[in-house]
Write a structure and sequence with these properties.
The structure is a single chain. This protein has strands spanning 2-10, 16-20, 28-30, 33-39, 42-47, 61-74, 78-84, 98-102, 110-115, 133-137, 140-152, 162-175. The protein has 176 residues and is an all-beta fold. The chain has a single domain, classed as Fimbrial-type adhesion domain (Immunoglobulin-like), CATH 2.60.40.1090. It starts with a strand and ends with a strand.
C-alpha cells in the first residue's frame, strides 16, 4: 500500500484556484517481479464558488489524470486491482464524497472526488464502496495506463482562501 498524496491550493477572495496533484509510487513483489504505480496528477485550474454578483456558481471544476501500472520481470501472469481508500477529512464514509482540509486557514473542507468514468458515475473506491481500476499483468514487462476523472463540485461558497490537502492510500492487489 502507498499513500496517494492530494494537494490543492485556493487563492484570492473572488476567484479561487485549485490544483489537485495525485502522486503515488508502489513497489511490490509479484511472482518474482515488481510493479510500480504512479499518477500524472489532476489540475483543476480556476475554481470560483461564487460569481461576481455574489451568487453561487453552478459550474464544477473537472480534470483528468493518468494512473500508470508498470511491471517488470514478472515470471507468471495474472491480474491486478487498484483501489483508493477513504480520505482523512470530512463526514461520512469519506469515499462517496472526499474532502480536502484547508491546511493554512482552517474552515470548511473542500469536497471533491476521483472517478473511474468520464460520466462521473463511478467513484474510485476500495471495492466495497466505489469501483476499482483493474487490468492484466502478462509475463515479462508490461505497462498499463488508466484515466481517472476528478471533479470539485460547484457552489462551495464557504471555502476560505488557502492551501488544501490530504493523503489517501492507493492499494494495488495482485491476483495470480
Amino acid at each position: 500500500m502507498k499513500e496517494l498524496r492530494l494537494r490543492a491550493t485556493v487563492r484570492g477572495d473572488i476567484s479561487t484556484w485549485v490544483a489537485l496533484v495525485l502522486a503515488a509510487a508502489s513497489g511490490s513483489a509479484l511472482a518474482a517481479g515488481t510493479c510500480s504505480v504512479s499518477s500524472s496528477g489532476l489540475a483543476f485550474g480556476a475554481y470560483q464558488p461564487v460569481s461576481m454578483a455574489g451568487k453561487l456558481n453552478s459550474v464544477a471544476a473537472t480534470s483528468t489524470a493518468s494512473v500508470s501500472v508498470v511491471c517488470t520481470a514478472i515470471a507468471t501472469g495474472g491480474s491486478y486491482t487498484l483501489s483508493l481508500g477513504p480520505g482523512t477529512y470530512g463526514p461520512g464514509d469519506r469515499i462517496s464524497v472526499r474532502y480536502l482540509n484547508n491546511t493554512s486557514h482552517g474552515g470548511d473542507p473542500m469536497a471533491f472526488n476521483a472517478f473511474t468514468e468520464p460520466s462521473y458515475a463511478s467513484v474510485w473506491g476500495d471495492g466495497a464502496r466505489g469501483a476499482v481500476l483493474s487490468g492484466s499483468i502478462p509475463p515479462g514487462n508490461s505497462s498499463q495506463a488508466h484515466t481517472v476523472y476528478g471533479r470539485v463540485p460547484a457552489g462551495q461558497a464557504t471555502l476560505k482562501a488557502g492551501n488544501y490537502g490530504d493523503s489517501i492510500t492507493m492499494t494495488i492487489t495482485y491476483n495470480p
